[in-house]
Write a structure and sequence with these properties.
Length: 249
């Protein structure tokens, strides 16, 4: 009986470990960017990059803390890697001027430089031209996508953002994979980009000094499965414990 109980206990332990691993979609990430704000209404925050040698290893900080600006209306729970539906409001929706809170994959880098100038970066890179538009019309089949308007069968949107701007804000940028299934009205076109200045919040993106953004983009490696964790500091403490995220001092 004792032997059978020991075997049962071992099976239950292994099953619990497997379930825990399956419940943590971040376990394979080796690069993590953390952005924390003081509260939901904050329009500023701080960013810190972390890396580890292997999945499940100890996180170590890379570089110095970077100041960032957030949405004009602060933060709201978005849609990303971890389901935030059980979390209380506020929620991120289209046009609310909130940056999304949650855990997100990072996608394509973009900018004003030609592709050959960005050949050394590990991320995929999209050179911005006058034809590239970010579609924020929830009724469009291209909602929440960067599209070359000359290469689609039909332009079906009534609202979009011209990505090749007259200023420097999108000289360098990075797509945050918020609302990846493009749920209409859940929010679109979330980026890291260059800030105007330290006191000018965004329409829902996270912005920072150009030199810091360029370093960040150059460091990121898709093979390391990079993630962004962005939320108020007190909520981050809970997520950090649950998902084994880096310590943010």
């Amino acid at each position: 009986m004792t032997r059978m109980w020991n075997i049962l206990l071992l099976v239950l332990t292994l099953s619990a470990g497997t379930a825990h691993a399956a419940a943590n979609p971040l376990r394979r990430s080796r690069q993590c960017i953390v952005v924390v704000s003081s509260n939901w209404n904050s329009t500023t925050g701080v960013l810190r990059a972390f890396e580890r040698a292997d999945a499940g290893g100890a996180w170590r900080a890379r570089g110095a803390e970077v100041p960032v600006v957030l949405g004009k209306k602060g933060l709201g729970w978005g849609r990303g890697v971890v389901n935030a539906d059980p979390e209380p409001k506020p929620r991120k929706i289209e046009g609310d001027n909130k940056a999304p809170a949650g855990v997100f994959h990072l996608g394509t880098a973009f900018g004003y430089a030609p592709a050959e100038s960005a050949a050394s970066m590990k991320l995929p890179y999209l050179p911005l031209t006058k034809n590239i538009e970010g579609v924020d019309d929830p009724r469009s089949r291209y909602y929440n996508q960067l599209v070359d308007c000359t290469k689609v069968p039909r332009v079906d949107w009534r609202s979009s953002e011209k990505m090749r701007r007259d200023d420097h804000l999108y000289k360098w940028g990075l797509v945050v994979d918020h609302n990846p299934t493009a749920i209409p009205g859940a929010g679109s076109l979330i980026f890291f980009h260059i800030w105007k200045n330290s006191s000018s919040p965004t329409a829902g993106c996270t912005a920072m000094p150009e030199k810091d953004l360029v370093k960040l983009i150059g460091w990121l490696d898709p093979a390391a499965r990079p993630i962004l964790v962005q939320m108020p500091r007190d909520h981050y403490a809970v997520f950090r414990s649950k998902f084994g995220l880096p310590v943010m001092r």
